[in-house]
Amino acid sequence: MPALLAIDNVTRMFGGVVAARDIAFELQRGEIVSLIGPNGAGKTTLFNIITGFVKPSSGRVHFDGADITNLKPQQVAQRGIVRTFQITNVFSGLTVGENLRAAQYLRLTGPFWRTMLGLSDARDRQEAADRDAAELLRVVGLEHLRDETARNLAYGQLRLLEIAIGLAASPKILLLDEPAAGLNSEESARLVELLRWLCRERGITLLLVEHDMSVVMSVSDRIVVMNFGQKIAEGVPEVVKQDRRVIEAYLGASLDEDDGAANGMNADA
Amino acid sequence: MNRLETRGVLLFLALAALAPLVITDQFFIHVMVMVFFYAILASSLNLTVGFVGELSLGHAAFLGIGAYASAILSTEYGLPALACIPVAGLLAALAGLVIGLITLHLEGHFFVLITLAFAEVLRLIVNNWIEVTRGPLGFSSIPPPRLSIGGHVLMDFSSRVQFYYLALAVLAVTIGVVLLYAQSAFRVGAVAVRENRRLAKAVGIDPFRQALLTFVIGAFLAGMAGSFYAHYITFVGPEVFGFSFMVTMLMMVALGGKGTVLGPLLGALLIGVALEYLRFINEIRLSVFGILLILVTMYLPQGAIGLLAWRRMRKAGIVKVSAVTR
Q: E strands within B53-190?
């Protein structure tokens, strides 16, 4: 079976700086893959390339057999690759319910007149979308906050709302950029449950960038490790965490700066 | 859209429909015709400014295109005025499509400036392309509308009250279009772009298409307003492209409450009435409005409608203000 997402030798330079060099890996349907590495390793750049926010200097991205390298972000999302952002990103002036409604935009709209006049199929779509939104809020545990304005939410709740927004857009692949950042251990555990559930019940393929090693190790089918813009290892968690280059990359990083990820890595290893 | 707002809009239309039965003062009727005209303009401007959140300073261009289209079609080609109104709307929408295709790739300050430039360029063309537009002289004696069935004249628009109801009819169409838009998924997409452009893209919303659609609808409505203006005032000159109309409608949107359906109507009523009744202090009239606009922007960013919603929610014990009024 061909890969759902294939990154083929993608390179991206910013001026003279190589943010990603010759990165290649694949995502299979229904997998949970984590992208890890010290700060500045190029993980978010890769996210930006996959979702069309940044174009690669060379290399291609294929999704479901089609070349999506040069598509715009909204076109990538329309095909089914939806992302969240590292820095919390919601529609902060809208209520939680309206946030999900906005993310459901694509399935709420049809031809101009039918959408404008709210004809029967538009109403059907709306009802189906409302049911789905209610279920999503239940899954992430925010149903009691449906009418709350997003900017009034606590940090942990915002992170969950972000995931719910991503899901409301009916993705085939959901890219989560540090979903566990800033969550306490209880919230992280809940996140892990949620991610597994998504994969199992909804058949969504997940790609995460994450620093919290307990989350990464417990949820991932495979791990891709990056350092200084290059892929240095790839494999199942048990293998990756004993890889010499991976340990070096993390220990090296922890000498320069106090990187929580490195500590987590050691604790696990 | 909430129920308070829908009721407010219906109340506005009902009161407007009944008012001439009670008040027959001709000056009042004229003032209200202008209020309706401004309400159409403000509602159409609000689509882009309020829902998409991009400030267009070129909206007067669509008013002008509608007015000139109507003037030329009725005086030179003899098209009946009532047919001119929708045709002028469509021509303005077409202009909106062209201008939107060029300008809406920009956002923020750049969009503001380029739309302003477009309106100014159109004004200069109209001022100088004398063979078509008659230059600064403009068109005068634009014929009034006539409504007849089988040779029998129903309305000849010789009285102001008939214009009053024509303006109200165009306004009702405008409000209908705006209400449909505000309840459709298009508003959801536009508001998503306004609130967070990057996230909107990430969930598959195309900001450009969203803005273009809204912009073209707004241009259509403003074009109809321009056409009505031409037949009511019976004179059209290059000043319909001018900045004073632009400032007036912007003020109405800001004061009434942007991003709502009722807000622009309230703004048009408040400022439209003040504009006409304060003519005796003509010199300082606009200065007063300028100061008012500064105060509203600073202390009442959601406009009069925000004040209403806030009072109501405070009464109900809810302090937060929902996005509908934002």
A: 147-149, 152-155
Closest alpha carbon to B28 in B270, B266, B271, B277: B277
- Name chain A contacts of B181, Cβ cutoff 8 Å: 116
Q: Which domains does chain A have, with CATH numbers?
A: 1-72+171-269 (3.40.50.300), 81-170 (3.40.50.300)
CB atoms within 10 A of CB B204: 25
Who's near A49: CB < 8 A, 6+ residues apart? A7, A10, A12, A20, A55, A56, A61
- Could you give the percent of chain A with pLDDT greater than 70? 92
Distance in angstroms (rounded) separating the CA atoms of residues B268 and B82 = 24
Q: CA A9 → CA A22, A49, B307, distances in Å?
A: 4, 12, 57
**B107-161 pLDDT, tens per residue?**
888 888 888 888 888 888 988 888 888 878 788 877 877 777 767 777 777 788 8
Highest mean pLDDT among A140-149, A192-201, A234-243, B218-227: B218-227
Contacts 24+ apart (CB under 8 A), B290-293: B292/B251, B292/B255, B293/B251, B293/B254, B293/B255
Predicted local confidence at residue B310, as pLDDT: 66
Q: What are phi and psi of B130, to 5 degrees?
A: -65, -35
The pairing of strands A32-36 and A17-27 is unpaired
Residues of chain B with pLDDT under 50: 317-326
Q: Which pair of structure tokens corresponds to residue A111?
A: 């031809």
Residues of A in contact with B192 (CB under 8 A): 91, 94, 102-103, 105
Encode burial over B266-302: b for 16+ CB neighbours within 10 A, e otherwise: bbbbbbbbebbeeeeeeeeeeeebeebbeebeeebeb
Q: Which residues of A135-174 are buried (b: 16+ CB within 10 A; e: fewer)?
A: ebbebbebeebeebbbeebeebbbbbbbbbbbbbbbbbbb
Instruction: Report pTM.
Output: 0.84
Written as six digits, the tokens of B40 are 């159409």
> How close is the nearest chain B Cα to the Cα of A162, in Å?
10
Judged by a CB distance cut-off of 8 A, whether residue A115 touches chain B is yes
Query: In this predicted model, what pLDDT tens digit does every residue of A74-129 receive, in sequence order?
Result: 999 999 999 988 777 899 889 998 999 888 888 888 778 878 887 767 778 888 88
Report the alpha-carbon distance of residue B235 to residue B232 in Å, rounded: 8
Q: Is the pLDDT of residue A256 over 80?
A: no
Calculate the alpha carbon distances from B212 to A110, A111, B111 in Å: 16, 15, 13
Per-residue CA distances from B151 to B82, B147, B148, B155 (Å): 16, 10, 6, 12
CA atoms within 13 A on the CB side of B261: 26
Domain B3-286 sits in CATH at 1.10.3470
Dihedral sign from CA coordinates of A180, A185, A187, A188 = positive
Give the pairing type, strands A222-227 and A32-36.
parallel
- CB contact under 8 Å between A95 and B322, yes or no, is yes
**Residue among B203, B207, B320 whose CB faces A169 most closely:** B203
Nearest to A116 among B186, B196, B198 (CB): B186
CB atoms A77 and B203 under 8 Å: yes
Q: How far apart are the first and last CA of chain A?
A: 33
Q: Count Cα atoms within 13 angstroms, Cβ side, for A127.
A: 6
